[in-house]
Design goal:
Rossmann fold, homodimer, 14 strands, 2 domains, alpha/beta, Dihydrodipicolinate Reductase, domain 2
């Protein structure tokens, strides 16, 4: 079996270090691995599969190595500066930042949903927004079967989505990363505000969902909220379908869809919760109910580990698709 | 000025003790006050306006006193057993429990929204559900001006809504009141589950909103979620109007409505948050944005102190209406 040379950019961050963990867990066939980081983290030691590695400083020469895949998880500025340099050297880039996601020639891939998009890549494949990834998994089979007309998202997002700074604000009760205390609070503010009154996070959910489901006709709105939860985002989703449906068919298509776990037995208090889902690579769906305010309406409650399936696991799954190809 | 004799049932609970605080703050004209409680709390001392009172045990003879108003805040079972006994003695009952709210002859009153309903009371006036109270305040002027067709509620509810047991679960990290840990978690489960897959809390928001706005034609759905916040509920609200609207008119009618504060300057990170709103009797509205997925759609984020405006303050305001009458 062929083995590959892999580079991880931003390996000391929350998503980067989880990518390493998942490459190990899934036994990704690695020949050599390189760790590239900002000057600040260069020189640090990283243990990967029982070997110790030194983090190298990322610079324009970093990609003059025999690298097959580069995972970028060091933020938009680093991806903007270096991703195309890597591509020019023939390296396949899997980018966790948002900057290339909406570019027409860049595939935005959730392997269970739109795996074939990888064939359209000219080098960069974007990893979608965390809340979007977990939402589109259950939405895909519902769209295929009942055709989604409109989606209303309200999110309950964990602080780990902001990286280690967010976790520190929650755990220490400090106000350093967020503009206000997150402990015991709820901030209707994720990423920066745009002219239209929406946050970038809200517009990511709206635009990326349409791109991944390949249907610009779906009407979408979103309100994204940070809550004092460490790991796992939750999303309250209201759907309107074109077609009539039976609730039992909703359960069936969700249960059959790869990557989705239906956890919905409310009479026994079974529903998805962040504390339960932490550490899982699956997307959990519950509170599945007809919305009686519409002819073809449905309510869902979706929970997933935002750092794993919402970021690192999805990125590694994209690399797995590329080597299967 | 006439003074009144008042009884508070459940004065040692979270809502009951806040009713006392608000009767003091608003200087409600009290001649004599009685404290009635279960056997467990009887004998306790309560300080009200610098006088010390002994809590009496509630029984069938408790209402053979010269009482004008009785605030019931001891749960549905107590209200069911004693509210009508009080009414039979000519006492006006303001009931915080849910049991009489949907009865046709019982007014369900939010003083800023439907004050005239008090004239229809035959004795009991119900105080609405906390999430419903804070939602209908901004909805009332919007319905009057633009006619609401459909509402989708997703709530972010504080543990104080469950009383002292909920607060203890949050603060001590224990699992006694809730079926699961609430610290660092989000539970899509408030009150018990019904046959149709909704919780009672969700159905309260749906049914009480229609009753208070006096319009059964409004289509409503809801998902209610407990979050690790001590005080103040937040609600993400999506609205569809019959009529077209200008965003500036939305701001205008909200700003002019009594009891509503518009806090919405996102470019300067100003939006309503639980930690800021705690202790206030106003309902805060922000994140006001057109929902571009619809012709006449609007998104709102509404925060209020669930124990004050969502319960105790609203109850005292109802009594104020009754004495003005």
């Amino acid at each position: 079996m062929r083995k590959y040379n892999v580079a991880v950019i931003g390996a000391t961050g929350l998503v980067g270090s989880t990518i390493l963990k998942i490459l190990e867990e899934r036994n990704f066939p690695i020949d050599h691995i390189y760790f590239l980081s900002s000057k600040k983290s260069a020189g640090n030691q990283i243990v990967f599969k029982d070997n110790e590695y030194t983090v190298e400083e990322l610079n324009e020469d970093s990609f003059n190595k025999d690298i097959d895949f580069a995972f970028f998880a060091a933020g938009g500025t680093v991806s903007e500066k270096y991703a195309n340099i890597a591509v020019d050297k023939g390296i396949r880039v899997i980018d966790n930042s948002s900057i290339y996601r909406m570019e027409e020639e860049v595939p935005l891939v959730v392997p269970e949903v739109n795996p074939d998009e990888i064939f359209n890549s000219r080098g960069i494949i974007s990893n979608p927004n965390c809340s979007t990834i977990q939402s589109v998994l259950p939405l895909k089979p519902l769209h295929d079967n009942f055709k989604i007309k409109r989606i209303i998202f309200s999110t309950y997002q964990a602080v780990s989505g902001s990286g280690l700074g967010g976790i520190k604000d929650l755990e220490d009760g400090q106000i350093e990363f967020y503009p206000y205390q997150i402990q015991g609070n709820a901030l209707p503010h994720i990423d920066s505000f745009l002219e239209n009154g929406y946050t970038k996070e809200e517009m990511k959910m709206i635009n990326e969902t349409k791109k991944i489901l390949k249907d610009d006709s779906i009407k979408i709105t979103a309100t994204t909220v940070r809550v004092p939860v460490k790991h796992c985002h939750s999303v309250s989703v209201n759907l309107e379908f074109e077609r009539t449906f039976e609730l039992e068919d909703v359960y069936k298509v969700l249960e059959q869809f790869d990557g989705v776990i239906v956890k919905d037995d409310v009479q026994n208090n079974k529903y998805p919760m962040p504390l339960d889902v932490e550490g899982s690579d699956k997307v959990y769906v519950g509170r599945i109910r007809r919305d009686f305010s519409l002819d073809n309406g449905l309510n869902l409650w979706i929970v997933a580990d935002n750092i794993r399936k919402g970021a690192a696991t999805n990125a590694v799954q994209i690399a797995e698709l590329l080597i299967k190809d």
